[in-house]
Design brief:
There is one protein chain. Helix content is about 35%, strand content about 20%. The protein is built from nine helices and ten strands. The protein has helices spanning about 45-50, 85, 95-105, 110-120, 135-150, 165-185, 195-200, 230, 235-250; strands spanning about 1-10, 20-30, 35, 60-65, 65-70, 75-80, 155-160, 185-190, 205-210, 215-220. Strand 9 and strand 10 (about 215-220) form a beta hairpin. Helix 3 packs parallel to helix 5. The two termini are about 25 Å apart. It comes from Nonomuraea jiangxiensis.
């Protein structure tokens, strides 16, 4: 589905400047759930913006289904960390979700059906006529996810989408995401700095070190479907968590 090869990103005209991303290489298979884990400032968001075609790369390439990404692909959707800035406060929830569909050329009747289906999928079927500022933070992030789902992407990029909500809301959003990932059979690339979140969600976790490059790849073979109590109480959950924690520590020496 996605191929990233020797990707490098340097800001500014000086080619000798320290890169934000350096020699980044990895693949993501169709319908795979991959989490990108790394400490703050290691280049996770820059990497994601390059993958989405929002930033030009300095060298290397990104391919989505064998097509080089040179701008935002139509097959891709992006859920940002700051949901309050990604929703239009003067539009209702329904209009926010349907907004990108007009640029995709979706007929009005089909767009209405896709919008309603997406809102139902995230548990907001009865809130379509509300405005974002009338909803809680967790509900607003559900609207952002619904907008991405209504777009029917092949691949969904998510940049620390649950970082701004409380722990209980975060757990609910994680379970919601797993449910819609399986229901819509999409590919997800999810950036986070939370180890527990990465282990709970992913099929595979990539650990980045600065400048952004893959320092470690960890396969997560925990049983699916997952739930907060059973999965996080599984003996292998603690083992995987410890392995990733060691890799992220300043003294970590991942192989």
């Amino acid at each position: 589905m996605l191929e990233v090869a020797q990707l490098s990103k340097v800001y500014g005209p000086d080619p000798a400047a320290r890169p934000a991303v350096a020699d980044l290489t990895f693949d993501v298979a169709a319908r795979e759930f991959v989490c990108i884990l790394g400490s703050s400032g290691c280049g996770k968001t820059t990497m994601l913006r390059c993958l989405a075609g929002l930033e030009p790369v300095t060298s290397g390439h990104v391919r989505l289904r064998d097509e080089v990404v040179s701008g935002p692909p139509r097959e891709m959707a992006f859920v940002f960390q700051d949901y309050s800035r990604s929703l239009y406060p003067w539009m209702t929830v329904e209009r926010n979700v349907a907004f990108p569909l007009r640029y995709k050329g979706v007929p009005k009747q089909e767009a209405r059906a896709a919008t309603q289906e997406a809102l139902e999928a995230v548990g907001l079927g009865g809130r379509g006529r509300s405005y974002p500022w009338q909803l809680s933070g967790g509900m607003q992030q559900r609207v952002a996810i619904a907008r991405a789902l209504a777009y029917r992407p092949q691949i969904l990029l998510m940049d620390e989408p649950f970082a701004s909500v409380d722990a209980q809301t975060r757990a609910g959003l994680e379970d919601l995401l797993l449910d819609v990932w399986q229901r819509y059979e999409i590919t997800v690339l999810f950036v986070t700095h939370d180890i527990d979140e990465a282990v709970y969600l992913a099929d595979r976790v990539l650990v980045l070190r600065a400048p952004a490059h893959v320092a470690l790849t960890v396969e997560v073979d925990l049983p699916r479907p997952r739930n907060q109590l059973t999965t996080k109480g599984h003996p292998d959950f603690g083992r995987l968590r410890s392995e990733l924690l060691a890799a992220l520590s300043p003294a970590g020496t991942p192989q």
